[in-house]
Amino acid sequence: MLPPMTTSTFDAMWQALLPVGRDVTSGGYRRFAWTEPDLTAREWFAGEAEARGLTLVVDRNGNQWAWSGDPDRDGPGVVVGSHLDSVPDGGAFDGPLGVVSAFAALDLLRERGVAFDRPLAVANFTDEEGARFGVACAGSRLLTGVLDPDRARGLRDGDGNTMAGAMRAAGQDVTHLGADRETLGRIGTFVELHVEQGPGLVDLGRPVGVAGRIWPHGRWRLDFHGEANHAGTTRLSDRKDPMLALARAVLAARSQAEQYDALATIGRLRVEPGGTNAVPSLVQAWLDARGPDEAVVRAVVDGVGRESGATPVEESWTPAVDLDGGLRERLATLLDGAPVLPTGAGHDAGILAAAGIPAAMLFVRNPTGVSHSPAEHAERDDCLAGVAALATVLEELGR
Ligand code: HGY
Ligand code: MN
Ligand code: MN
Description:
Bound molecules: (2S)-amino(hydroxy)ethanoic acid, manganese (II) ion
Shape: globular
Number of helices: 14
């Protein structure tokens, strides 16, 4: 049981974020990086930092940090947090649960009068989902130097706006994007709490788990060119219809994934000119592929390219990440033998781990097992168990 003060701050934070970027029709969230809802969420973050007397730092890549203590003098510190942006029509929990739980865990420790030797911070990583500009974990990739700043500045959203323009419009200087040793040097350990994106904890009957391995994954663009023409007058034999090749790609994604025991998804399309009564001139599709190892993922992507006749253009790649084994075991033991679960989902914790920062993740049970959809859920009691677990971890690591 958490003290009433912590549960009420948790509830208040949750209620404050609930309406931000929520689509009334679908009930899903559209908090895309640097759009109005994202800026509102970032303001919320700054307000929570201020309310707790934490020092707000926005790094060169737009990630937000709320520090207790001075990481430059007494660091490196312990950082907990996640992200506040969403996929199109995402759930309420993917990202925000980690940020809200981080503030609540800090509140709990303060309420208990726990003193720390190390500085602590809550983090909000910018553009984790890559829903607007295409590259997931853009904030942490820039920070760690795995996303080239020039490429990032030039990434475009569906309306042709560049990331640089969107960041500038939000008041963020973009001249110094990129690897940031100073900020990285402040992070001694990073712990990200996240709603589970599958039914693992439901099956095990446990509210909280610890992440093991993150599958390698990536995103590829497939371009299918054809010739625009009239749907009512163009003989089938005269058509150059790129939609047929797209259909082959969709079926190949499924069969290749089955063959290699991997996952492959085509969930986003752009069709030109996009008329019901016109054969398309261009179809662009985005392939998300993930698997137990890199060779398998590459084989799936090559297979989709071969069967559909397109050349997959890689837009992002994330190698497999084994989150720090020692840290993971330490946390699992600390949390009464919490189960260790592998995941196919990408996270900023994985990007930091790949950059050599000790990183761990806690998962909170999701009764629907669904994520990236409004059906994503976690019961309040499980969320509070997550806060308690995160506080236990912080207390251990912050000493
Ligand atoms: O796409 C992903 O794996 C994520 O949830 N960022
Ligand atoms: Mn996500
Ligand atoms: Mn997430």
